[in-house]
Amino acid sequence: MSRLPEDLDRILHDLRGPLNALAMHAEVLKRAVREPAEAESVRMIQQEIERLAEMLAAAMHVVAIERRESLRVSLRAVVERAVADARLTDVVLAARDEWPDVVGDPTLLTRATAELLRNAIDATQAAGQGTPPPEVSAQREPDGMAALVVRDHGAGFRSTNPKVLVRLRPSARPGHQGVGLVTAERIARLHGGRLRFTAPGAGAQATLLIPAAE
């Protein structure tokens, strides 16, 4: 995890103070209780304190994301860089002549794309052997937005409502922070865009929408 800017690091430090105090008091209670139900309650309190500490740190790192460049770039180039940087495999890209250009921060757009691709690959792997690989395409929307579409053939979304899907939550997977969609949405917003989710029959489709270049 990258280092936070000084102001956010200071805020996170201040927030961790009360959490550390709560953790110490919970440990004292843990040693004092005798009833199994009380011990289980204290254990749950300790777990939630640890979870909150992780979520605060993750939230600060998302808030710290800033747009630093404004360059014209092809969405296909963004996807190719995301695939190479994250060492992702088994991703099918649409034909070269269908990709619009956008103006934005290439590094951030690559990061957002990588987050969507990782989710699609995870869904594909979870669906089992023989599941078609994720497909990535792009198009210009009638409203002037460029749409980068990531489609998988996994189990699909439990909802297509962004307020349900884009949530800050810990991940049970080792090495994952559980903030992939939150990060992608933050980057989309920094570019004047948004995320859109659809359920195209079997599988799921996540679309990164940002203004297309003139």
Question: What does this protein structure show overall?
Answer:
With 214 residues, the chain is of the alpha+beta class. It has 2 domains: 6-63; 71-211, Heat Shock Protein 90 (2-Layer Sandwich). Helix content is 48%, strand content 17%. The chain has 6 helices and 7 strands. The strands form 2 sheets. A 5-stranded mixed beta sheet has the order 2-4-5-7-6. A two-stranded antiparallel ribbon has the order 1-3. Strand 6 and strand 7 form a beta hairpin. Helix 1 runs antiparallel to helix 2, helix 3 packs across helix 4 and helix 4 packs antiparallel against helix 6 (180-190).
At a glance:
The protein has 214 residues and is α+β, with helices and mostly antiparallel strands. Helix content is 48%, strand content 17%.
Which descriptors would you attach to this protein?
single chain, 214 residues, alpha+beta, Heat Shock Protein 90, 2 domains, 5-stranded mixed β-sheet, globular
* Corresponding CATH architecture of the largest domain: 2-Layer Sandwich
Q: Regarding CATH, which class of the largest domain?
A: Alpha Beta
Strand coverage percent: 15-25%
Radius of gyration: 20 Å
Average pLDDT, to the nearest integer? 91
- Look at the structure and name the CATH superfamily of the largest domain: Histidine kinase-like ATPase, C-terminal domain
The run of helices and strands is HHEHEEHEEHHEE
